[in-house]
Specification:
The complex is a heterodimer of chains A (157) and B (830). Chain A is 33% helix and 16% strand. Chain A has 157 residues and is α+β, with helices and mostly antiparallel strands. Chain B has a domain of 154 residues: 2-Layer Sandwich (Aldehyde Oxidoreductase, domain 4), CATH 3.30.365. In chain B, strands 3-5-1-12-9-10-11 form a 7-stranded mixed sheet, sandwiched between helices. Classes of the chains: A alpha+beta (157), B alpha+beta (830).
Chain lengths: 157, 830
């Protein structure tokens, strides 16, 4: 067991974890952050995408111990949902019907936030390339791409 | 101004944002794997690495000694309480059906089948210990592939004596819906056109994003199962029927379910094992599959060889269609199993006026993952075959693919139209959908560009693919299902509860897993009952709340479940009217209901439905001849399927040097009757399109000769990404063909995109290189297959047909040029 201390969605947390424990398992099993989900076992699907020190990572590809001393943001900490607020990208996914079953959505939104942070005014092509690491089976990506472009538009306004 | 008195702006047709989204975009979700119960134990499955083997011993001692392991159980540790996995649709009375134990004790029949289960305090510890279970196998010869299975040399289940499970036949001449197809073919051979083709529907994997998960809690009076399922009601029934627990002691909950596409229309070994273990240990248990397990052991879809003969006169007017399917069931006959290809039986004739038709479906057993429904289930296969054939016929006649269709389709004046397969299409307008699609696509300009590139000898050639599809959906009239020997009906149930505060709870037996029922059903109720959209709450997916239902699949929820809802709402209004008349001291005949309010004609007296709900709750003053309740139920059994249709046009660019294909444009004009929510409809179409396009271009589940699934992860099973796909041009006809068999006039849309798009894409790829002498590319049309096809044509010749490949066809028939032997090597028939 290894002791880790980190900040998750604004709260300081501390736990003893097995060195092999993945960050996504830590988030779900130890912290109950079940908004972040597991969709595959080969780091292809991106459903588990969170931000590690502000950059998107697939949390199945990071060990919990690697997050020691760092800051993690999950879909649950993206906006102050207790107040009913939404991050603009969350609002945009809703507005553009960028989700159906919603399983890939937390990862999609976290990836989109990161993409727009790096490139606030992307072309459709840039969105498609930037979201390539996140799989969706429901939407055919049409409205996901639209959601990201819509969020970029909204930020300009 | 009376506007405020009137019904608010109609909800039906409005692009309402979804009610479901708030929790999904904030991570406030309840997927089955999110559920944790006190004392809950975790399961890990030990799966066979062999496709076919006898189990000689299962040594669990090392696993049992592993930290925090509670139990390790194999098939021999259970008796009848383990139950069996059912086949609900034996397609013929003499169907050969192998016994399907959730965890066989003696013999495994596919790689991935479960032989033991480890129960531990954590999922990680269970998986660790699963590695320590030592299973000894005696490997048996495995039969892989349809053609091998048909030989009956190696048997998937030796005790059955054959791999051939059932032969299902429909012949229009025998049932009186048409004439003799053999005669039509004979005539066409001498005085017309005969197109003979063999097409391969590759095996696909539904690949819903949420891996399957099941939690069973045996504490309390009812045993509760949460499952990532499309079918909580069918699941409950099957558990009761096979495990000896009374149905009334079983509660099944489908909480948030992350996609299904038919893949969660199943009663699974994993659910049965979790059920049995929880009962045995009297503790809550959870099992969540890994993606690799999901790809290997959750049911697969499609997998057919289609042998097709189309007869036409010299002008390309069709005269007959003969279809023989060989369909791979995999190792067992799953819950719907052989019924899936049979659903296609009624759709091969599609929108065309075939005077004669024969359909045969031979199902076979192999030592592979069992197959079952995948989005479209039978209809994509049929649509692919006929839409590919119509393009071939156009090429043979030398006319545009749209023109050949127009010569043969049912015109809008001819509805209702009884087809050669015996279905009555109520409404449709193929001309209007085609005209709209053609215009939006820019068909003529793209044809001109195609010609220009061809004339110029451009390295990148342009192809245009057409698919004018229809389908039968809204499963299904119960009597029809009965006549096909399906084990259940096709009705749906709904309840409307008028709460004391004036809010409305509706309960549906449909079980959404991404479709947006909460939103669409709220719109329907808001309009019909005249209450605010926000005041309607939709409950579903829990057999203790939605006690009756037949769940969600086959594009049925709106057209069957929605109609049940409409009828329940109408009963509420009838009851409310009686109470309103009593309270207003008026005659019911003088009452008018509008915008959620009863008014007495010619007066300013009135009462709102919410006030009536409160009055019924208080029950201080109500008529002698009624119960103090406005609540109502309805169970609706559809009288017919419904028949959405559309014209899909696809432009593909093919690099003739590399074989790379690229989608340039995709337009679809679907006529689905009245649209409740255009935003949701567009989403269904987009997602459906990509699943169909993915069959055409990328996806294929491949077993090697030993029966190992080699496309067993998302590295190898190629789900498309955002970078592989384009944005689509989705339009609808200006005046929809309103469905006549339900009140709302709606038709199903959940599967339309998938059914239509696959042939549109392959037709476009073939169209781009047809001038090189190519008339087929096997799916998926990978760059390698396209390149090989082009190289083959350059080498100057058609692939030779081995003499034994085509027993279906007349010897020496000239225009049959593709065959599976060649397809297996290079995927191309030239």
């Amino acid at each position: 067991m290894t002791k880790i201390e980190l900040t998750v969605d604004g709260a300081a947390v501390s736990d003893d974890v097995e060195p092999r424990m993945l960050l996504v398992q830590y988030l779900r099993e130890k912290l109950g952050k079940t908004g972040t989900v597991i969709g595959c076992d080969t780091s292809n699907c991106g459903a588990c995408t969170v931000h590690l020190d502000g950059t998107s990572v697939k949390s199945c590809n990071v060990l919990a111990v690697q997050a020691n001393g760092r800051t993690v943001t999950t879909i649950e900490g993206l906006a102050d949902t207790a107040e009913g607020d939404l991050h603009p990208v969350q609002a945009s996914f809703r507005e553009c019907h960028g989700l159906q079953c919603g399983f890939c959505t937390p990862g999609m939104i976290m990836q989109a936030v990161d993409l727009l942070g790096e490139n606030p005014d992307p072309t459709e092509e840039e969105v498609r390339l930037g979201m390539e690491g996140n799989l969706c089976r429901c939407t055919g990506y049409h409205n996901i791409v639209k959601s990201v472009l819509h969020a970029a538009e909204g930020a300009k306004a | 101004m009376t506007a405020t008195q009137d019904r608010p702006a109609a909800e039906i047709g409005k692009d309402r944002r979804r009610k479901e989204d708030q929790r999904l975009i904030t991570g406030r979700t309840r997927w089955t794997d999110n559920i944790t119960l006190p004392g809950m134990l975790h399961l890990a499955m030990v799966r066979s690495p062999f496709a076919h083997a006898s189990i000689t011993s299962v040594d669990v001692e090392a696993a049992k000694a592993s930290p925090n392991v509670v139990a390790v159980l194999s098939g021999k540790d259970f008796g009848a309480e383990l139950g069996v996995c059912i086949n609900a649709w034996p397609i013929t009375p003499d169907q050969k059906t192998p016994n399907h134990s959730p965890m066989p004790a003696d013999r495994v029949a596919f790689a991935g089948e479960i032989v033991a289960v480890v129960v531990a305090r954590s999922a990680a510890e269970a998986r660790d210990a699963a590695e320590l279970v030592d299973v000894e196998y005696d490997e048996l010869p495995a039969v892989i592939g349809i053609k091998n299975a048909l030989k009956d040399e190696v048997l998937a289940h030796p005790d059955l004596g054959t791999n051939k499970s059932a032969l299902w036949v429909f012949d229009s001449n025998e049932v009186g819906t048409g004439s003799d197809v053999e005669a039509a073919i004979e005539t066409a051979r001498t005085d017309g056109i005969v197109i003979e083709r063999e097409y391969r529907q590759q095996r696909l994997i539904p690949a819903f994003m949420e891996p399957r998960s099941v939690v069973v809690d045996p504490t309390g009076e009812q045993i509760t199962m949460w499952s990532a399922t499309q079918i909580p009601h069918i699941l409950r029934f099957a558990l009761a029927a096979t495990t000896g627990v009374p149905e009334s002691k079983i509660r099944v909950i489908a909480p948030d379910v992350g996609g299904g596409f038919g893949g969660k229309l199943q009663t699974t070994p994993e659910e049965w094992i979790a059920w049995a273990v929880a009962r045995r240990l009297s503790k809550p248990v959870k099992y969540t599959e890994t993606r690799s397990e999901s790809l290997m052991a959750a049911h697969h879809g499609r997998d057919q060889v289609q042998t097709l003969t189309l007869a036409a006169d010299k002008d390309g007017k069709v005269t007959g269609l003969k279809v023989h399917l060989d369909a791979d069931l995999g190792a067992y006959i799953a819950v719907v199993g052989g019924g899936v290809p049979v659903l296609g039986a009624f759709m091969f004739n599609a929108i065309y006026k075939f005077p004669s038709y024969r359909f045969e479906c031979q199902t076979v057993l192999t030592n592979t993952t069992f197959t079952d429904a995948y989005r479209g289930a039978g209809r994509p296969e049929a649509t692919y075959a006929i839409e590919r054939l119509m393009d071939e016929l156009a090429a043979e006649v030398g006319v545009d693919p749209l023109e050949i269709r127009e010569r043969n389709w049912i015109t809008h004046e001819e509805f209702p139209f009884t087809t050669v397969a015996g279905l009555e299409y109520d409404t449709g307008n193929y001309e209007a959908a085609t005209a709209k699609a053609r215009e939006s696509f820019g068909y003529d300009a793209l044809r001109a560009e195609q010609k220009e590139r061809r004339d110029r000898g451009d390295r990148v050639q342009l192809g245009i693919g057409v698919s004018t599809f229809t389908e039968m959906c809204g499963l299904a009239p119960s009597r029809v299902l009965g006549s096909l020997d399906y084990g259940a009906g096709g009705w749906e149930h709904a309840s409307v509860r008028m709460l004391a505060t004036g809010k409305v709870e509706i309960v549906t037996g449909a079980s959404a897993h991404g479709q947006g029922h909460e939103t669409a059903f709220s719109q329907i109720v808001a309009d019909r009952l005249g209450v605010p959209f926000e005041d309607v709450e939709v409950l579903h997916g829990d057999t203790q709340i939605a006690h009756k239902g037949l769940d969600t699949y086959g594009s049925r929820s709106l057209v069957v479940g929605g109609e049940a809802l409409v009828r329940a709402v109408d009963k509420v209004i009838d009851k409310a009217k009686h109470l309103a008349a009593h309270l207003l001291e008026a005659s019911e005949d003088d009452l008018e209901y509008k915008g959620g309010r009863f008014t007495v004609a010619g007066t300013d007296q009135g009462v709102a439905i919410q006030e009536l709900a409160t009055a019924a709750f208080a029950a201080h003053n109500y008529p002698e001849d009624m119960e103090p309740s406005l609540d109502a139920d309805a169970t609706y059994d559809p009288v017919n399927f419904n028949y959405p249709h559309g014209t899909h046009l696809c432009a593909m660019e093919v690099d003739t040097e590399t074989g790379a294909v690229k989608m340039r444009k995709y337009t679809c004009c679907d006529d689905i009757g009245v649209i409740i929510n255009p935003l949701i409809v567009a989403g269904q179409v987009h997602g459906g399109l990509v699943q169909g396009i993915a069959q055409a271009l990328w996806e294929e589940a491949v077993h090697d000769d030993a029966g190992t699934l080699v496309s067993g992860s998302f590295v190898d099973y190629l789900l498309p990404t955002s970078a592989d796909t384009i944005s689509f041009d989705v339009v609808h006809t200006d005046e929809p063909s309103v469905c006549t068999t339900n009140t709302l006039g709606t038709k199903g849309v959940g599967e339309a995109g998938t059914i239509a798009s696959t042939p549109a894409v392959v037709n476009a790829v073939v169209d781009a290189i047809r001038h090189l002498g190519i008339n087929d590319i096997q799916m998926p049309c990978t760059p390698e297959r396209v390149w090989r096809a082009i190289q083959g044509s350059k080498a100057g010749g058609a692939t030779e047909t081995p003499p034994d490949a085509m027993p279906h066809f007349a010897e020496g028939e000239a225009n049959q040029q593709s065959h599976e032997g060649a397809l297996d090597q290079d995927g191309a028939g030239q």
